[in-house]
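Regression test attached.
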Amino acid sequence: MMPDAAPEITEDEFRRLADFLYRRTGMVFTETKRYYVERRILERIVATSSPSFAAYFTHLRSGIRDEVEHLINAFTVNETYFYREDHQLACLSDDLLKERVAAKRPGDSIRIWSIPCSTGEEPYSIAIWLLENWKDVDAYDIEIVGSDIDTRVLDAAAEGIFGKRALMRLSPELIARYFHERDDERWQILDDLRQSVRFSRVNLIETRETRPQGRFDVIFCRNVLIYFDDESRRIAAENLYDNLLPGGFICLGHTESMSRISPLFEVCRYSGAIVYRRPQELRA
Amino acid sequence: MSEMSRKRILVIDDAALVRTYYRAALEPRGFIVEEALNGVEGLEKLLLEPFDLAIVDVNMPQMDGITFLQTLRAKELPVSGIPVLVTSSEAGTQDLTAARRAGANYYLVKPIRQETLADYAAMFCGEPR
């Protein structure tokens, strides 16, 4: 709900806030996104009962009651669905894992990271896809981690309840196999599948948050770098590189290209997708 | 098919994804699937409820599959006589021998196709139809 007399946000105030958000999240909010940003800020001004923008901004910067987190949560876009861009999932089971396990022994771990994972559609899709399409699924210790900057979506992801829209790409057989139907036209993913994904809050441009996640065989990082500016993208790419095992792969959204962001990775073309790889050896 | 006549299988594996995979293999064939996350929990369930088969992984925290088998076989009948199918990612003869000595009825090396697992389950429990 908007306040009756919405506080005005001046151009200077907007710039200061955008600058503050950029430093904290790496996300760039230009004048062109002003309407969108302003609406979210006004929501938070009302929610915190702040008398003015200036008062709210002080509140925000003081870090009281995790206001930064609340504001970030209000900004992040969280709509996705199961089996989105499934050609990349096919590439994962047909090509990427085959390469990754070549140097492993059965029983070894395979780590897959979904960042940002939003409400869990992507990491759970990876789990279901592997159960259905990868013949070695029981032979390796598969660890799937879902991370996001938005704590609200992480709570929802851990709960694993989805509406029709999120499941639109799944066949009725798959839904019956891996979900319980609830009475409110919503479906909850099976307990075992919920347990097969670990969720954690991570800001992609904060190395101190990405590093503890450890190194992965494959990272899915789709449609988030487009929200960053060049500098944040570069930091994110370096963090992602650090989080990959040598020879590990990263999958971006189909409109994104790592080659424009960072020279650290080598591009790999498979029949189903273009992915990027951390080279086996450091270049001289 | 009534609930009474359906065969009950206990899947003991610490990996949630593997338990899902086995469940998806066995339930469509009419088996009732229960789960345990390690050998200790597996033993507890077998002592509390009747089962027709246990499928147990070798590598698990708390109590591994081999220790589980040795402990189970040392119990009183009838619980000690439950058929146990051991699954493992280790294909070596040493591992197979260790499982057999501990009292395994059969040893399947992962990866295991879903149809294969369900076929073996049916051989131990009787085809549920």
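Expected vs. actual: identical. The longest helix of chain B spans residues 114-125.
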